[in-house]
Design goal:
mainly beta, Immunoglobulin-like, six-stranded mixed sheet, 1 helix
Length: about 230
């Protein structure tokens, strides 16, 4: 009898160990939303704007909210609007004749997971303004906090201007750590080659100027080298 009890207890322990060892599937973040309006690099005719984006899909069917951020810089540091809402749109009045940058994050409210959209730029129209400053340079490679291999490296970026007939030129700043200096001016290409050494950290930025002399000061990105 005692032997039977021991065997039964061992079976029960094994059963519960197997049950407990089965991990629950990890919760997944919602899908990335697609920004609809204002579209990328749009010149708005009115500074009261109906922001709109697509609905996100959550793999776990969790409830979702959306965090809308509007800023005056591409890295979303100089934030002028930060709202969390349950719908896929919001109407906001902004300053005229100003470049803005916006992004929407879909938030899984159950497990606090989120996914971020692209950052879109747009320009609100001013009264009697005929020329606008270019948008800030969009640093492509290397991005902020990236890690790269030692050797020759191409700094690349994108840039645009509401005044599509304007010719854009670029001034590149580059240096070790957070000390950067101008290394080229009036560059017409969206690329500049540099050499980087192993174990070091570098920073860079790009200023964009149109043919009327209007300039957008770029933001600094920092990267490290293996």
């Amino acid at each position: 009898m005692r032997k039977s009890i021991i065997i039964f207890c061992a079976f029960c322990i094994s059963f519960f160990l197997v049950r407990c060892s089965k991990k629950q599937p990890a919760n997944q973040a919602p899908s990335i939303v697609q920004l609809t309006f204002p579209s990328k690099d749009l010149l708005c005719t009115d500074n009261t704007i109906a922001f709109n984006w697509s609905a996100a899909i959550d793999p776990d069917n969790d409830d979702l909210e959306y965090n809308l951020i509007i800023a005056k810089d591409r890295q979303l540091v100089e934030v002028i609007e930060n709202r969390t809402i349950s719908s896929t749109g919001a109407t906001i009045t902004l300053e005229k004749a100003t470049a803005f940058y916006w992004q929407v994050s879909a938030i899984d409210v159950t497990n606090n997971l989120s996914s971020k959209s692209e950052v879109f730029a747009f320009f609100t129209k001013g009264d009697g303004v005929t020329n606008y400053a270019p948008f800030m340079a969009d640093l492509k490679t290397p991005t902020d906090n990236a890690t790269v291999n030692a050797g020759n490296l191409s700094l690349t970026w994108d840039a645009s201007d509401i005044n599509t007939d304007d010719t854009l030129t670029y001034e590149v700043f580059f240096g070790e750590d957070d000390v950067i200096n101008s290394v080229t001016k009036s560059l017409s290409e969206k690329m500049y080659d540099v050499s980087v050494a192993s174990g070091k950290t570098y920073s860079w930025k790009v200023n964009v100027t149109d043919n009327s002399g209007a300039t957008s000061i770029g933001q600094i990105a920092t990267f490290s080298v293996n």
